[in-house]
Amino acid sequence: NNSPVITIDGPSGSGKGTIAFRLAQKLEWPILDSGAIYRVLGLAAHQAGIASTNINELVKLARDLPLTFVTEQSSDEVVAYLDGEPVGDAIRTDEAGQRASEVAVIPEVRSALLARQRDFQQPPGLIADGRDMGTVVFPDADAKIFLTASAETRAERRFNQLKQKGISASLCALLESIKERDERDRTRTVAPLVPAAGAFVVDSSTLSIDEVFSQVYEYSMKKL
Ligand code: C5P
Prior knowledge:
Elements: E1 5-9, H1 16-27, E2 31-33, H2 34-47, H3 55-64, E3 67-72, E4 77-82, E5 85-86, H4 94-104, H5 107-118, E6 126-130, H6 133-137, E7 143-148, H7 151-164, H8 171-187, E8 200-203, H9 209-223
Parallel strand pairs: 1-6, 1-7, 2-6, 7-8
Antiparallel strand pairs: 3-4, 4-5
This protein binds cytidine-5'-monophosphate.
Cytidine-5'-monophosphate is lined by residues 12, 34-35, 38-39, 97, 100-101, 104, 130-133, 181, 185.
């Protein structure tokens, strides 16, 4: 499979989602929102009453979840469908993010999701958004981007995002939660959050979205 792939990895609130969408619009490529897979899995496990220690059941769920995604240009978001029904904002809450990172530490769950994620590599190309897109899932990607920003900046962005959706949150609690989730994502033994070798690293703390996008776009065009 030679279809081009651009990977965008980084911590929560680094602006990955927004940049992935801008690229998707410009190139007319779909997005793999891998975080949404972990979020849906965490939610489905919770609803089915499967504990995070029950690895066999979690792996089964990871392999068999009837999950599909649509990149909706109008909504600025990848919409997840479970069994043909839109999952909605239930996966976008902070609690869902925490649940996602709890199932994401399990190596067996990650490997069960590997093939599913690689299936997204199709013509004309793919923008893959996550934590390990450039390191593990698409190590041969044409362009690899790693976005970061200070924890404070990221908490503020998350706060505003949630507010826009009408989901209430406390900035202070979000900052704590972001730090906790980062710590878990960075220190796990399998596929920890680190920039891929040779990745183009952008710290967006003091940059506007337009500035980040133009740097990322220029880099990507050189690589494709
Ligand atoms: O990107 P998002 O915040 O939606 O991801 C939710 C959680 O899913 C992350 O905190 C991380 O634990 C997990 N995740 C992952 N690998 C990915 C994408 C997300 O472990 N490629």
